[in-house]
Amino acid sequence: MLDGVQDPPLISGLRDFSAPVIWKAVQSDRSLRILILSDPDGLNRWEASQEMAVRLIRARCEASRNAQTLPSQRAAIRTWRGVLAGASSDPALTVELLTLPDELWLCESIRPFDPATVRSERDGLRREIGSGLKDLWDGLYQEFASHQKRYRYSVEQAARRRLKLLALSYLVWADPDRYVEQAQRAYRDADNLTDRIGALAALNDLDHPARKKTMDDFRARYDPFPLVLDKWLTMQAISHRPQAIRDVETLTRDAHFNRRNPNRIYALIGAFVQLNPAGFHDPTGAGYELLASEIRKVDATNPQVAARLAKAFGSPWRWEDAVVQKRMEKTIRDLANEPHHSREVQEILANTLTERAPI
Predict the structure, then answer these.
(1) Which residues contact 159 (CB under 8 A, 6 or more apart)?
(2) Which of 42, 75, 212, 357 has its CA 20 to 30 Å from the CA of residue 196?
(3) What does pTM read for this prediction?
(4) How buried is 146 (Cβ within 10 angstroms: 0-12 exposed, 13-18 middle, 19+ buried)?
């Protein structure tokens, strides 16, 4: 017992480990907030921030499914405000602490499996972080944008660019009417590809005319650079817009997309099925049908790539949701029962249907 110390000690475990370690420990919400603000170990601060975000999104999902009032985020917002207030001292770590867990990880972590609700509630938390910290985000963006040096790669410059673009993303998401024009200006004035893609990414999830205008400009501007246009394909494939499936179908007819080039396939179709869980697992089954259609077309010229795409189905028994199981199983069986598939694709489909043991 230490004189004058009333709070119990907190565990900050596994500091300075050089390899990943799985450590299961139960920390209270308050403990996580203290670790985020005070732990001298950057990785442990990041893990605490990620865990806090997962808990918040899980609670939001449960409230949404049960038609209950969403839980308060005020304590978490105050914690992230404390992080953001000290952003200038370590921009790189600040970016990591204020970046929410990705959807794929959340869908694996939150049960029942419900990608649409996970997306909705993750986006809701993203909006609250943007609006609740708008004054700090705006101040950081203006400071970094006005004092940005001409592009030259350095660790310091890269960290400042990342934080500036994260600020822009939160601002656009929280208040598009005010900040869309700022994102467009950032796109036009960029003197490097990182800034230009970052500004475009800030618009990517919006259903706004500025998004299409900027996407079209990027397509024309980088037409001679196929690897850059692959990023353009991927960005649209992972967009949170409800019409992302239709966008992907449309992009398969773009002159840049070529089914004989594996990089184009992975940039568009691979990104959609692997990085857009809410789109791929769309309740209508349109995401599954899109993948099945592409497997048929690609299999004719590149069975190895088609088989790799088929692995994206995973196993329908992986999800405890009976509707997801049934819908995915039907698509896989219909595809497997068709003649003329390559041996590689047939093997993947057959194995998928026989792996009934749940993960």
Answers:
(1) 90, 91, 92, 95
(2) 42
(3) 0.93
(4) exposed
Distance between CA atoms of residues 93 and 162, nearest Å:
10
Read off the pLDDT of each residue in 191-205 and give the average, rounded to a whole number.
Answer: 98
- Flag whether 15 is in a domain: no
Q: b vs e for 227-251, b when ≥16 Cβ sit within 10 Å of the residue's Cβ?
A: eebbbbbbbbbbbbbeebbebbeeb
Give the whole-angstrom CA distance, residue 133 versus residue 39. 22
Range of the domain at 342: 222-359
pLDDT for the residue 97: 99
Question: Is the backbone of residue 14 left (phi > 0), alpha (psi -120 to 50) or beta?
Answer: left
The number of domains in the chain is: 1
In CATH, what number is assigned to the domain containing residue 321?
1.25.50.10
Conformation bin of residue 300: beta by default, left when phi > 0, alpha when psi is -120 to 50: alpha
Q: What is the pLDDT of residues 97-153, one digit of tens each?
A: 999 999 999 998 999 889 999 999 999 999 999 999 999 999 999 999 888 778 888
Whether the per-residue pLDDT at 1 is higher than 60: the answer is no
Nearest Cα neighbor of 213 from 185, 244, 239 is 185
C-alpha to C-alpha distance for 202 and 169, rounded to whole angstroms = 4
Quick: pLDDT tens for 38-69: 999 999 999 999 999 999 999 999 999 999 99
Tokens of 102: 């990705």
Given a cut of 70, is residue 208 above it in pLDDT?
A: yes
CB 269 within 8 Å of CB 294 = yes
Output the furthest CA–CA distance in the chain (Å, rounded): 78
Confidence band, pLDDT 50/70/90 cuts, at residue 324: confident
